[in-house]
Amino acid sequence: MTILLIGATGMLGSALRAQAFPGEVMSTWRERPLPHGIRFDAKEDDPRRLLSGLQGRPSHAVLLFGQTQIDACARDPAGSRDVNVSAMIRLLTCLKSEGITPVYCSTDGVFDGGGRDLREDAPPNPILEYGRQKAEMEAFIASEFAGRPHLILRYAKLVGLETGRRNLLGEWVDDLERGREIRLAKDQYFSPASLADAAKATLECARRDLTGIYHVGGPERLSRIEIFEIVRRVYERLQEVTSVVTYCRLNDLPFLEPRPLDASINSEKLYQAIGRRFASVAELCECEMPIRLRI
Ligand SMILES: NC(=O)c1ccc[n+]([C@@H]2O[C@H](COP(=O)([O-])OP(=O)(O)OC[C@H]3O[C@@H](n4cnc5c(N)ncnc54)[C@H](OP(=O)(O)O)[C@@H]3O)[C@@H](O)[C@H]2O)c1
Q1: Closest CA to 97 of 38, 66, 52
Q2: 130: Cβ below 6 Å to ligand 1?
Q3: How far apart are the first and last CA of the chain?
Q4: Residue 63 Cα, ligand 1 centroid: separation in angstroms?
Q5: 261 and which of 17, 49, 113, 215 could share a cystine (Cβ 3.0–4.6 Å)?
Q6: Per-residue pLDDT tens digits for 252-262
Q7: Measured from the CB, is residue 51 less than 6 Å from ligand 1?
Q8: Residue 7 Cβ < 6 Å to ligand 1
Q9: Domains (ranges, CATH) in the chain?
Q10: Helices (H), strands (E): how many in the chain?
Q11: pLDDT tens digits for range 181-206
């Protein structure tokens, strides 16, 4: 079995490449070249050429690519739809004719934030442009691939302790290390998932030929404040904390669209299917903080 990762240079793609068995994945890149990778721009390039140029036919294609920034989608709905919807449909159509199973990377952002611990059968009701594009693709796949294998993975916020923007826990550790002020929304809930666990689970879903929709979230519904307190507690045992924490409401922050307040999802169906649950935020911090702080 080989798995094609389309858009493999990003956060999840990098984790998938790190977790895959040797020779298990083929990867595409657009701007940042990957050793042995294939250059592919989903907006510009013909997906039939991508598939016909591969060495062997993959069993699955993980569709990672796209405009993944929520505000960028809101700022430019037409431009983001070009890649997230139009290019995605072109690729899905080719995968269907080649008999390759699509693994579509969706999001907890297909929900409106008014529910809690939502399961896979809860009806999507996106309030973000990003979520509307994702929900549209979910519906397209459900209808185009009805009766054929397909996988829709709805990821919660993926987290780890590596440094860098977009990585919530790692960003807080950066702030704590520099003594920077940390601003927390007190009314936001979600089910953060370890990036490494989510990558492993994605590969396991493909290896097990699972089909249908699965939520890929952590085992807990936590507020942003609760998550930060876990990070701070573990950090404080190793380093002094000088950062000042201030609080606000999520939608006091200058987003282009109001954000869902409760994005928590229930991932029991996935845990049953792969035979294990993901690490809690505390387990993740206990395990990764000493490595991150090189202690
Ligand atoms: N990370 C999360 O917490 C999270 C949560 C829920 C859902 N998801 C979903 O999971 C998927 C992967 O997320 P991610 O965080 O890894 O995203 P990411 O870090 O933003 O990476 C996106 C990838 O898409 C590629 N790409 C962008 N435009 C492209 C184009 N026109 N043609 C080909 N490739 C293109 C990028 O390549 P270049 O860098 O070369 O442009 C990059 O490799 C996305 O569909 C995202 O919506 C992620």
Answers
A1: 52
A2: no
A3: 39
A4: 9
A5: 113
A6: 999 999 999 99
A7: no
A8: yes
A9: 3-157+194-216 (3.40.50.720), 160-189+221-264+280-292 (3.90.25.10)
A10: 11, 13
A11: 999 999 999 999 999 999 999 999 99
